[in-house]
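Q: what does this look like with succinic acid bound?
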Amino acid sequence: MTTAVKMFDLQSAAGPIGASISGLDLSEPVDDTTFSAIEDALNRHAVIVIRDNLLTAPQLAAFSRRFGSPQINVRKEARNADTPEIFWISNITENGKPVGSHDAGRYWHSDLCYLEAPSKLTLLNAIEVPARDGQVFGDTQFASATAAYDALPGAMKSRLDGLEAANGYRYMWNKKAHEFGLRPVLSEAELEARFPPDALHPIVRTHPVTGRKCLYVCEGYTHAIAGLPRDESDALLQELFDHLANPAFHYRHQWRVGDLLMWDNCAVQHKATNDYDLPLRRLMQRCTIEGTAPA
Ligand code: SIN
């Protein structure tokens, strides 16, 4: 369905989330009316792509700041040195050093869920997209946390009511280090010195704008439900991760150079697709915006 919106064209995706916007130049400041329409589209579709905007880091940072306070990622080596609120994601190595994070987003997750105040919004801009013979690789997949919650049986909704779980960057670090080998395994002391402690968040949170309930457990970071024995906690978390993986809740974004993809980290979870390798290059720049403590 194509909807004529005053300031741009918006096309909804087929499933519960996702929409595409064209006819918008973000290299210059957008006026307040246009900005409100973008926010409205985000609240309705949870994931939107604004096409044809290959931005500089300062332009991406300036547009991102319209939504709130940009977060400075805990991984210093992956930040843009001149614009530290911009974080590089790539598979490229230059002068023997990885450009940004080489294993970002490999598990289903919501950005910076390991902080007391996780990201409300992420903006990801495609600079280089891996492609060969017309086939594009490195899609980003999204799962509607709202649709996933709505589809839970009533008994499960009651069981989750009031439960909280630990979300850990330190946990994720070594999980990725062991599974993908693209970062060193760190000792407990090193993890504690470099990264924040776990954040305890409700398993079901309420969206601060839409008021809808969202399932908030992340395969990559959520590792223990408070007050439950380990085996019960593991089994329940796995059941919820499996539930979120149901394609009925999904939107899959196939990238074009210049796409600016934006997503609501309460309403959706996401996951990168690792189906390419050098010499196919992927280079993305990302900014996340601080949200409120999940409630
Ligand atoms: C992310 O998890 O923020 C990155 C996703 C991607 O690179 O596709």
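Residues 230-244 form the longest helix (15 residues). Confidence is low (pLDDT under 50) at residues 1-5.
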